[in-house]
């Protein structure tokens, strides 16, 4: 509670004191016989002003003390001497109601997360079966048609389903991400090659040229989260690039650390939209083609910031998009929780 609010609380008392002092002064000054006591009147007014200010300061001090005590009682359930038992009853009931609501919401969220986790693991079974069927389709296509067009389309959609399932799993974990961190030394070259091997069909079917620089560098991070984020960025590059496009992955030194760049020559992003790509739910103008959820980059930035990394995007529409993940120097990793 600040001083301005306290003034609002006691303004009627202030108006009353001013009104009384003004009335008394007017009556005394109006009396011609009392002109000689003008100096005394000024002295009396000064004393009244000093006394009022003193009591005003004491009142404000007491007001602040009571407010802080009440605030601590509400937030920390500490002892507070209530002069109004009805007020105490109302506050206690409201606190109990809020606690019950919070506990209820926590249980609901835990139940939803449990269901999501079970559903995600169960859905992987039909995905695996579809991958086997896809291989059978490939064999039949090769035998009767001499091409793999249907197999190609099935594999692309399977990859998209698997990517969305993985994203749902990581989003369900993102509310309590810090408790799931396992910080270890990771070689960037190994995890990038592992991701590329997993997503090779995206490059083969879309005839995308992959250019990989020297990525042999170790960083401190969480392997599962970092792999998920890099895979999301690579998938986005393949999603927003034309056939025969180019994706470059390389490292670059900076004053603050090492930068991992994932650059493509795809459709890019408008200049005015660059600052919005990390907003929750932002999908951009090309969503009618890609059907994005707008959650990938939002979650990625949250996680990378928690890991004491950073992510930024540089882009020019219809020319390129360059996503940069910055791994700060070792001294900055003490911020990791």
Structural class: alpha+beta
Low-confidence stretches: none
- Strand proportion, as a percent range, falls in 5-15%
CATH architecture of the largest domain, by name, is 2-Layer Sandwich
- Sequence of strands across the biggest β-sheet: 2-4-5-7-6
Q: So how many helices?
A: 9
Q: Output the helix-strand order.
A: HHHHEHHEEHEEHHEE
Main sheet makeup: 5 strands, mixed
- CATH H-level homologous superfamily name of the largest domain: Histidine kinase-like ATPase, C-terminal domain
- Integer count of domains: 3
What would the principal axes of the Cα set say about the shape?
elongated
Helix content class? 55-70%
The beta-strand count equals 7
Radius of gyration computed on alpha carbons: 34 Å
Reported by name, the CATH topology of the largest domain is Heat Shock Protein 90
Catalytic activity: ATP + protein L-histidine = ADP + protein N-phospho-L-histidine
Domain Histidine kinase: 118-331
GO molecular function: phosphoprotein phosphatase activity; phosphorelay sensor kinase activity
GO biological process, one term: cellular response to phosphate starvation
3D structure, described in words:
It is a multi-pass membrane protein. It is an enzyme of class 2 (transferase). It is found in: Cell membrane. With 337 residues, the chain is α+β, with helices and mostly antiparallel strands. It folds into 3 domains: 79 residues; 80 residues; 150 residues, Histidine kinase-like ATPase, C-terminal domain (Heat Shock Protein 90). Helix 7 runs antiparallel to helix 9. The radius of gyration is 34 Å and the shape is elongated. The mean pLDDT is 79.
């Amino acid at each position: 509670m600040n001083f301005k609010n306290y003034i609002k609380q006691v303004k009627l008392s202030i108006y009353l004191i001013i009104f009384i002092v003004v009335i008394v002064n007017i009556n005394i000054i109006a009396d011609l016989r009392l002109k000689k006591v003008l100096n005394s009147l000024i002295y009396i007014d000064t004393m009244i002003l000093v006394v009022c200010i003193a009591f005003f300061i004491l009142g404000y001090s007491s007001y602040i003390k009571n407010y802080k005590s009440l605030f601590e009682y509400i937030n920390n359930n500490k002892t507070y001497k209530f002069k109004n038992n009805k007020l105490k009853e109302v506050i206690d009931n409201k606190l109990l109601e809020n606690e019950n609501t919070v506990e209820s919401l926590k249980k609901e969220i835990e139940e939803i997360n449990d269901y999501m986790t079970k559903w995600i693991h169960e859905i992987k079974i039909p995905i695996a079966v579809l991958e086997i069927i896809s291989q059978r389709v490939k064999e039949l296509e090769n035998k009767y048609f001499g091409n793999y067009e249907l197999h190609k389309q099935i594999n692309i959609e399977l990859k998209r389903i698997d990517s969305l399932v993985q994203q749902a799993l990581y989003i369900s974990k993102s509310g309590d991400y810090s408790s799931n961190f396992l910080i270890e030394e990771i070689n960037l070259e190994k995890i990038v090659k592992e991701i590329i091997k997993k997503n090779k069909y995206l490059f083969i079917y879309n005839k995308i040229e992959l250019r990989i620089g020297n990525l042999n560098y170790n960083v401190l991070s969480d392997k599962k989260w970092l792999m998920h984020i890099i895979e999301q960025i690579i998938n986005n590059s393949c999603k927003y690039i034309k056939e025969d496009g180019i994706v470059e992955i390389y490292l670059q030194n900076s004053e603050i650390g090492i930068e991992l760049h994932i650059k493509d020559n795809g459709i890019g992003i408008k200049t005015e939209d660059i600052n919005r790509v990390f907003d929750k739910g932002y999908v951009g103008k090309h969503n009618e083609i890609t059907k994005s959820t707008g959650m990938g980059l939002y979650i990625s930035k949250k996680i990378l910031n928690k890991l004491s990394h950073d992510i930024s995007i540089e882009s020019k529409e219809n020319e390129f998009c360059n996503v940069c993940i910055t791994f700060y120097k070792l001294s900055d990793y003490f911020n990791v929780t």
